[in-house]
Structure formats: C-alpha cells, structure tokens
Amino acid sequence: MVHPTHEQERLDALHRLRILGSTPEPHLDAVCRIASDMFDVPMVLVLLVDETRVWFKAKWGVDGEGIDREGAFCDLTIQNQAGSPLIIHDLTGDPRSAESPLVAGPPNARFYAGVPLALGSGFNLGTFCIMDCTPRPDFTERHARQLRDLALIVEAHLRLHEARVDGEADAARRLKAESALRDSEQRFRLLAETTTDVILWSGLDTTRLYVSPSIRTVLGYTPEEMLGTKPLDFVHPDDAGNFSRVLDDLTSGRVEHASTCQRYRRKDGTWVFMDVSQSLARDPMTGAPAGYVTSLRDITERKADERRIAYLALHDPLTDLPNRTLFWERLAEETRYAAQHGTRVAVLTCDLDRFKLVNDTLGHPAGDHLLQIIAARLLAVVRETDTVARLGGDEFAIILGRIETRNDASILARRIIEAINRPIGFNGHSMSVGASIGIALESGGALDAVALFKRSDMALYQAKAAGRNTHRFHDPAADPASTHPGPLKAEMQGAMKRGGFLLNYQPIIDLATGTIAGFEALMRWRHPRRGELAPSEFIPLAEESGLIISLGAWVLKEACREAAAWPDHVRVAVNVSALQFQQISMEETVLHALAASGLPPHRLELEITETILMQKTETVSRTMRRLRKLGVRIALDDFGTGYSSLSYLHNFSFDTIKIDRSFVVGMSNPRTVAITRAIVALAVDLGARVTAEGVETEEQLAFVRAAGCTDVQGFLFHPPQPAKDIARLIEGGPVRLAA
Fold first, then answer.
1. Is residue 394 situated within a structural domain?
2. Are 23 and 44 part of one and the same domain?
3. Given 204, 427, 518, 675, which is the most exposed site by the fewest CB atoms within 10 A?
4. Radius of gyration of the chain measured on its C-alpha atoms
5. Same domain, 220 and 140
6. Is 334:401 a contact under the CB 8 Å cutoff?
7. Residues 326, 268 share a domain
C-alpha cells in the first residue's frame, strides 16, 4: 500500500477531529442522495481514511460501517494534494483498480469518481465519491465540476465540526466555518432544486419550512402549497402509524436516520409509493435537535415491477399456471391440513405423450400453443380449489385437496386424458397428444409433500410402462426394475464407459456486433435403440442416482478440451447441476478441466440455476467466490422461471443472467414484456450481461434487442452444432442482425 506524503501527520489530524464513529448527519446523507440522483449512480459515500480502515461518515446505497483500506479507491484519491477528482471510467481496464476486491466481488464496482476532502489542517482526511456497477465513459468534465461542488458542501459541514472540536474560543475560526456553512447551504439549495427527488426541511413539529421545486412533478403541488403543511396531511392512513413510529425514533434519539416506504396522496387524489428518507437535523453550533431533513423519491413504477416479478416468481409465463415453487408451497399446505384434520390429498403427475414429436415436426411455436391449450383444458376439468401447475417442459401436476375417496382422483385422471386427447389446431395442422398420469394418495399426515410427490412420479413411470395414455396409482409392491428408470440407469452407466455421450454447441451471439461470443455446451446421449436423447430424458435420473457427478465432470473436461481450440475471444458455457455444485471437490474438478485443456479461466462460464442457490447458501457462496476469483465466469440460467428470489441477485455476483425462452415466446403478453424489461434493467444495473434464449423469429429478435439484452441464442441463428463444425461457424464472420 502506497501512503500519501506526511501520512502520520494526516492521521494525527484525523484523530484530533474525533469524528470516527460519530452519529450520522442528515445534511451529509441528503447530499449523498442528491448525488445518487444527479449522476444516476447506485452508490455514494462520504469516507474518512484511517490507518487500516475506511469509515463511512455518510452513505447512500451501501451497507455496513466501513471497509478495509487495502484495495479501496479512496486510498488513491487522498494522495492528490491538489484536490482534483480521481475519475476511473472503467475499473476493470485500469491497472490501479482492476485487482481491487471491490471490483472482483461485491459491490462489483465498474466506475469510480472521488474528490479528496481537506480541512483546516490541509491534509486530505477522506473523500466524497460515487460508484456504479457499469462503466461510465459518459462521465464528463461538467459532471466532475458538479461533483466538486457537492464535495465543497461536505467539506463545509466537516469544517464546522472541526471548529466545534477545537473549542469555542477560536472565534475567528468559528466565524469562518459558519460563513462556509452559509455558503454551503446556499449551494445545497441550488443543487436541491436540480434533483428529481423532493427535498424538504421541517421544524420539530414537522411543519414544512422548505420544499424543493420537484414537488410539482412528483405530487402535483407547488412548493408554496406545501409550506406550512405536515406529512400526515398527505400520508396514506394505513401508513400513518409507521410514519409516527419513525418520527418518535428520530425525536427520542434512538436513531438519527430512517428510510421507509410510504404512500403519499397526489394533488389529483391518486396514491403513489414514495421512498422516504428522514434524518434528525441538529443545530450546527449547539448540537440540539432543530428539525428534520426529508427526501422523497417516487418508486411507484419500481413497486409495480416488483409485484410483476414476484407474480412471475410463482407462475409459469407461458401458461400462467402456478410454477414449481407455488406447487410445492400449496402441496405443503395441503399435507399439513391433512395431518391436522385427517383428510385426504392426492397428487397427479402428468406427462404429455408425443409432445416431442410436435416440437420436432412443427417447431416450438406449435409446442407452446399446444401447452397453452392443454393448460386451459386442465383448468376446465378441476375444481376451483384444486391446483394445476406446470413443472417444466410438458410436465404438469395437479393437487386435489380434501377428497373423499380414491375414486375421486381416478375420475379426474380419466377426464384429463379425455380432454388432452382432443386434437388441437395450429396454422392448418392438427396436433394430437396423449397423457400419462401417476397418482399418489396421502391420508392423515402419513407422508410429507416430498414423499407424496415422489410416489406420484413413480406411478407416472408405471403408467408409461403400461403403454402410455393411461393413469396408474402408486403401487409400493411394484418392482422398480420393471419400470423405466432401472434399465435406463444401467444403460447410462454402460454409455459412460463406451463413450456414448457427446456434446453439441449452440452459438451465443453478441447483439452489439453480431459476432459469436461463445457457445453453450449441450449434452446428448446416442442411445443404441432410441436414438439421440435430449438431457431432459436422462438428466433427472442421473441426478437421482448420483451419476451426474461423474457425468458432469466429463462434460466439463470435454467442453474445455474442445473450446481450447477456438479463438481467444470465444467462451464456452457449461451447465452445472445442483448436486455437482454441492460437492467439496467442485473447485478441484474445474481446475483439473482447465489445467488438462489449457483453457484460460475467463473463457469458461458455468451456468447454474436458482435451485443451486437454494442449497447451503454459505457453501454455494464460497464456491462461487473462489471460482470467480480464479477468473471463471458465473451465469444465472433461466432467471424468472424458477424460484426467482431477487435476494439471489443481492447475495451472489453473476457475470451473465440468462432469460428463459418462455419470456421470448410470451412477447405478445404486455405483462411478460414489462417483466422482461424490468429483469434486463436490473441485470444491467448489476453489471451483468443478459442473454435471451430460444430466439427463433425476427420479431423475437427485435423484442429482445428493444428490451436491452446484450446476447442472444436460438434457432434463428444456429441450432446446436457438433464440435467439428464450430471452426466453420466462427470463420463465417458476424451473423446478420435485422435493423
């Protein structure tokens, strides 16, 4: 670590200030919030630099009280005694910052701009800085001047603190600090009038004394109309109690700052969601409470996006049925009810027969249309209290709660098969599919949700073994070896020994250039009797039997070996199962594959699903951190179709977020469009690339480009290709992208 000149004198001046660990100051917090809005950045900080730590005096968009000084950008900033800002437009491309832990891990910073803060001692004691998760080549000299202006406001408040510490006797110094404070308050008013946030100053009785002009845009009132009013005149009645509690906490001194979400009434009578940040203002000379500083930010649109994303987290975007997550929640509820009240519950697991044939002959649009019609037919034959869920692909599940007899489930199964058997039209074609249904019954709480579902799944295999287009109840006496999984498992073990698996590769296209940025490795099984099998036909069994560990290691090693022959800018993406990722040896497996092939780590991308993130969080997080530290890229696959907890994006860092094809085919649905754009915006804010999967038409391509996706893959460009054809694809140059 290179320290500034006169480092010990600088530290002595900082310690004399007695400011480390002091209470928050609302004016500084308000400056941070204004900076966030002015520069459109998620993170703003007022920092003080100690021997080994960087302390947060004020902050916006950042948690915690401080960070280690080692690797912190402010350590570079305070070395500039001229007081000019340090601006790094792209942290990954600057040797001074590229290796910083703030770049490699949370908060995954990509842009930094900071101004040193010097007080009466003349030493730079800290910085005022902004950061973003994406590079900011658009940050101009005009922006730098605005940042310096805000830094002067921060310095003025710190100088007043310095004057108080030095004692009241130094009248000249105190008058100078007060003059600087008055100048800073005038500067603060000017800046407050340029921000889109509403800034309010209130007395201790909450009467408003100052309201910034942006109130016109946000709530429809003029500043003059708001003067003399109180917050409870506008806060929604249901939020009034929360507002009063926050005010009590501030007034009593229990907290100095609070952020809440409240609904405010606009002048036209409508209600909007506001992010309300309140701080207790103190008299700058006496330190006594003097009033409140409040900032309001309209988050109505963000709230709507969150509600839409939350809905999608529990529903399949193609059919609008409950997805696997909601299915498990409701099944758990029904089994608990059965245990408490002695009722019966049934689970019906349903697979469509001949669905793959429809997809192969008529294409995915036909298959998607068929799934939507099937979903509507299933809803038509069940009770309103029953749950019909799409678990993925052509697999559906139905929960029958509080039934009387086994015959109730049998009658419904026959109705389902009859409904599904009716032909479905599509573009002049008639599509016919059947249904195999497995049924499991639970009575009086003998089974939990997981055990009940597993039994229905076993019954489904029995139905398929019986000739398909029929239903079977779970039979504990049935010989598992006589059903489908047993022989298939043995054949899979033999195929691994004989080299019966192969990898195909589907190109990932960079939408900015049309060039091939990478390939996703897709495994296939050359079955001696059934032909080439897709992963969906054998991966579940491989996971259940534990074969996925050795099979996954082979895929990783083979993909790295073949990718090593590609150009340096082309990466390979490999899917990793939850069981693989839980293994202690996962990191070793990756290192072995890279070492054996010579593939640089940054050219390997591991695709994981949200299911993995639901496992042992600390284990998963540690493995991800180590792999990313090696340079391996991590992609979150199928985001929005599984559990879709936004907390995963907060707790884990991803290089790529992949949007499932169900969003692409659902582009005619306005809700799906809105959710897609929200997900893309969120990913871009986090510094991740966004790949849209399953693009098959020019219309879908136009949609994902307009939504902001950075990469795309799908049959519109290329189907999965064998390894021998990859060189030809790359040499073919950029693909044509419609305007």
1. yes
2. yes
3. 427
4. 31
5. no
6. yes
7. no
CA dihedral sign, ordered 523, 527, 531, 533:
negative
CA dihedral angle for residue 258, residue 261, residue 263, residue 267, rounded to 10 degrees:
70
- Cβ atoms < 10 Å from Cβ of 410: 16
Residue 499 lies in a domain: no
Residue 312, φ and ψ in degrees, nearest 5: -65, -30
| pLDDT number for residue 574 | 97
Stretches in the chain below the pLDDT threshold 50: 168-169, 171-172, 177, 181, 477-484, 642-644
Give the helix, strand, coil percentages of the chain, each rounded to 5: 45, 25, 30
The rounded distance, in Å, linking the Cα atoms of 344 and 408 is: 11
In this predicted model, what pLDDT tens digit does every residue of 415-462 receive, in sequence order?
999 999 999 999 888 898 999 999 999 866 667 788 899 899 889 988
Crossing angle between the packed helical segments 7-17 and 141-166, to the nearest 10 degrees: 60
Q: Is residue 736 part of a domain?
A: no
User: In 3D, which of 116, 119, 118, 136 has the Cα closest to residue 128?
Assistant: 116
Reported for 184-192, long-range contacts at CB under 8 A and 24+ positions apart, including other chains, are 184/152, 184/153, 184/155, 184/156, 184/157, 187/149, 187/152, 187/153, 188/27, 188/30, 188/31, 188/153, 191/34, 191/38, 191/149, 191/150, 191/153, 192/30, 192/34
Total count of domains within the chain:
4
**pLDDT tens per residue across span 674-711:** 778 888 888 887 888 999 988 888 888 998 988 889 99
Do 50 and 149 lie in one domain? The reply is yes
Long-range CB contacts (within 8 A, 24+) of 159-166: 159/119, 159/120, 160/284, 161/17, 161/19, 161/22, 162/17, 162/119, 162/120, 164/285, 164/287, 165/16, 165/17, 165/18, 165/19
What is the per-residue DSSP string for 529-577? TTEEEPGGGTHHHHHHHTTHHHHHHHHHHHHHHHHTTS-TT-EEEEE--
d(Cα 429, Cα 423) in Å, to the nearest integer? 10
What's the domain range around 28?
7-192
Q: Do 46 and 155 have their domain in common?
A: yes
Residue 517 is assigned to a structural domain of this protein: yes
| Token pair for 487 | 């022989």
- CATH number of the domain that residue 706 is part of: 3.20.20.450
- Distance between CA atoms of residues 707 and 680, nearest Å: 7
Residues 514 and 376 grouped into a single domain: no
Cα–Cα dist 500/343, whole Å: 48
User: In this structure, are 255 and 311 located in the same domain?
Assistant: no
Residue-wise DSSP of 184-212: HHHHHHHHHTTSSSEEEEE-TT--EEEE-
CB 402 within 8 A of CB 441: no
One domain for residues 166 and 233 = no
**pTM for the full model?**
0.44
